[in-house]
Design goal:
There is one protein chain. The protein is an alpha+beta fold. The protein contains ten helices and ten strands. The strands form two sheets. It has a six-stranded antiparallel beta sheet, with helices on both faces. Strands 1-4-3-2 form a four-stranded antiparallel beta sheet. Helix 2 packs antiparallel against helix 10.
C-alpha cells in the first residue's frame, strides 16, 4: 500500500512537469467531479421531492377521510334531531286514513326546511315503515341507491306492535364538489361496476358515462374540464401509488366503501398546479433553487482549484 502511494505521488510529480498533460488531467477530473456531484444532488433533490409528494398525498387522503366523517355525522345529526319531533311521531301511530299523505307532506316539509337552513339542495328526507320484527338499529355511512351515491343516516324512532318506522336522511356525495372548491381543489367520485349496478337503470343510462374501464362518472355533477383531464391520467399508477401529477393537476385517490364494507368506487381530489400557491409549484421552485445553488458551489470550487 505504501509503495502504491509513493508511486502515485511520483506520477503526480512527473505530471506536473508536463504542463499540457497536467492541465488536461485536472480538466477531466474537474468535469467528472461536476457531473458526479450533479448526479448526487439531483438524486437527493428528487428523493426529497418524492417524499414531499408522498406526504402531500397522505395529507389529502386524511382531508378526504375527515370530510367524509363530517358529512356522515351531519346526516346523522339531522336525522336524530328530526326524531325528537312529536308531531312526526304521531303521524306514524295515527289511524287516520290520511296518515300516509300526511307522512309524505311532513317528509317534504322537513326536507325543504333542511335545504333552506343549510342552503344545500343535495339533501332528501324520507320516512319508512319496516316489519314489526325489524331491528331498532341506526345505520350511518355511504350508500348507493336508485338515484345515486349518498351519505345516509337511518334512525328508528317509533316502534309499535305492527311496525318500526325510520327517518332516512340522504345527502348526495356530489355536495363535496362545492366543499373542496372553497379550498381551491377539485373533487370527483367515480363509481365502480358493483356500485353502479345498484342504481336505477334509467338513471344510469341518462346520467352516467364511462371514464375508465369498470368505472363511471355522473358527468353533469362535475366540471367537464376536470373530467376531461382525469380521463387521460394514468389511472393504474394513481390506483397503485395513490397519487399522480400532470401539467395541470396533482391528483390523489381514495377508495370509497359503503355501509356494508363493499368498495363502490374511488374519490379523487386534485390541486391546480397553475396556482401560485400550489404546493407542486413550490416544490418545483425549491428543487430548481437547490440545484442552481449546488451547481454554483461546485463550479466555484472547480474555478478555485485552477
Amino acid at each position: 500500500m505504501y509503495s502504491f502511494i509513493k508511486w502515485l505521488g511520483s506520477l503526480m510529480e512527473r505530471a506536473k512537469k508536463n504542463k499540457g498533460f497536467w492541465f488536461t488531467f485536472l480538466s477531466v477530473i474537474s468535469i467528472a467531479g461536476i457531473f458526479l456531484s450533479l448526479f448526487f444532488v439531483n438524486y437527493l433533490v428528487s428523493d426529497v421531492a418524492k417524499k414531499t409528494y408522498e406526504n402531500q398525498k397522505n395529507s389529502f387522503q386524511l382531508r378526504l377521510k375527515s370530510q367524509f366523517i363530517t358529512q356522515k355525522d351531519r346526516t346523522l345529526a339531522i336525522a336524530t334531531t328530526a326524531t325528537q319531533n312529536d308531531g312526526v311521531k304521531n303521524l306514524f301511530v295515527s289511524d287516520d286514513l290520511n296518515a300516509s299523505n300526511n307522512i309524505k307532506k311532513s317528509a317534504k316539509q322537513l326536507q325543504s326546511n333542511i335545504i333552506k337552513y343549510l342552503d344545500n339542495e343535495n339533501f332528501s328526507v324520507n320516512f319508512e315503515k319496516n316489519e314489526k320484527f325489524a331491528e331498532l338499529k341506526i345505520i350511518n355511512g355511504i350508500d348507493v341507491g336508485d338515484n345515486g351515491t349518498h351519505f345516509k343516516a337511518t334512525v328508528p324512532f317509533v316502534k309499535t306492535e305492527s311496525f318500526v318506522s325510520n327517518i332516512v336522511v340522504r345527502e348526495n356525495i356530489e355536495t363535496l364538489v362545492n366543499v373542496f372548491k372553497n379550498e381551491n381543489r377539485e373533487f370527483l367520485f367515480i363509481i365502480n361496476e358493483a356500485g353502479i349496478n345498484k342504481i336505477d337503470t334509467s338513471v344510469r343510462k341518462q346520467e352516467y358515462k364511462k371514464i375508465f374501464k369498470d368505472y363511471n362518472v355522473k358527468e353533469d355533477a362535475y366540471s367537464r374540464n376536470f373530467i376531461n383531464n382525469v380521463r387521460v391520467i394514468d389511472f393504474e399508477k394513481l390506483s397503485l401509488d395513490g397519487y399522480v401529477k400532470d401539467k395541470n393537476y396533482f391528483y390523489v385517490s381514495q377508495s370509497v366503501f359503503d355501509v356494508d364494507g363493499d368498495e363502490i368506487g374511488v374519490a379523487i381530489i386534485a390541486e391546480d398546479m397553475s396556482a401560485d400557491n400550489s404546493f407542486v409549484k413550490l416544490v418545483k421552485n425549491l428543487v430548481n433553487s437547490v440545484t442552481t445553488v449546488a451547481l454554483g458551489l461546485i463550479v466555484s470550487m472547480v474555478l478555485f482549484l485552477f
